[in-house]
């Protein structure tokens, strides 16, 4: 027994490692419940009592020595986590990187806000649409070439299901479900099978508006669009309407906003005319009202629709629509200061 005690003492005395892991191993070897010293105490219990007194003392000394030695080792060689650099609590905190809104959303939210002020609500609908809501109810007769105006992505070769080509489909759903007066705008993603270039993309966003009530006239349409243009483009903004064609409106028009023609950028933006084309519009065709269960003898309405990317490109002078879909941080970070 004494031999073992002395041997252990020697081992403890000569231990000189500063590695925290090694120190912990030493503690387990000697001081844990199944360690060497605990085993000696077990042996001690079985010893004849006359030997116990002397051995007992050395055994206790050994235990005390081991504990103090290991405590000392631990306090002079702290575990690595604590050994790291000192924390400077006066240092300014790291800046959080705040995300920014996407320019398409900035423009979309602003347009929604402008129409909400005059009583329009927001309606949404599915991106995968059936033929009825995207075409037939909107007065696109079957096999009519007007369907080719909007190159369609069909779902799994099923001619009855497609990705919506415009959010006019949402307006059909609103008219089917609600009774006039209806004042709603429908923002959302739309899809057209077009080649991707700097000016056009196969996915983009639209905001379409619809107003159906008794005695809604073309004058109401024109005044609403003028209000919008002056809120969005500036108080002095002028608009003009050019005759156009859409299957679901009659008469139909294209809306231009006067942009100016003072410098080279104006020239480029307006193709030398000074006017920017911003949306299509018209009086809802009576057939469309009828298809949606609204009596065209009692009610009339107007509708309009604009492409959000096109307007965002004008507002922020973005020359390539693809930038709006690539999520390049260098591009998106530029919109951090916007709300
Ligand atoms: N739905 C048309 C389009 O996608 C836009 C439009 C909406 C035109 C409402 C007139 C009236 O091109």
Ligands present: phenylalanine
Largest sheet: 7 strands, mixed
The sequence of SSEs as H and E is HHHHHHEEHEEHEEHEEHEHEHHH
Tell me the helix content: 40-55%
Number of domains: 2
- At the fold tier of CATH, the topology name of the largest domain is BirA Bifunctional Protein, domain 2
Count of helical stretches: 14
How far the N terminus sits from the C terminus, by CA atoms, comes to 81 Å
Q: Report the CATH architecture of the largest domain.
A: 2-Layer Sandwich
Global morphology: elongated
Q: Structural class of the helices, strands and pairings?
A: alpha+beta
Mean pLDDT: 90
**Rg from alpha-carbon coordinates:** 40 Å
Low-confidence stretches: none
Order of adjacent strands in the largest pleated sheet: 1-5-6-10-9-8-7
* Strand segment count: 10
* CATH level 4 superfamily of the largest domain: Bira Bifunctional Protein, Domain 2
Fraction in beta strands: 15-25%
Report the top-level CATH class of the largest domain.
Alpha Beta
Secondary-structure blueprint of this entry?
Blueprint (H helix, E strand, L loop, with lengths): L1 H13 L5 H12 L4 H10 L3 H28 L3 H4 L19 H14 L4 E2 L5 E3 H4 L19 E2 L2 E6 L4 H10 L4 E10 L11 E11 L4 H16 L5 E8 L2 E10 L5 H6 L5 E10 L1 H6 L8 E8 H9 L6 H4 L2 H4 L7
Parallel strand pairs: 1-5
Antiparallel strand pairs: 2-4, 3-4, 5-6, 6-10, 7-8, 8-9, 9-10
Helix pairs in contact: 1-4, 2-4, 3-4, 6-12
Bound molecules: phenylalanine (PHE).
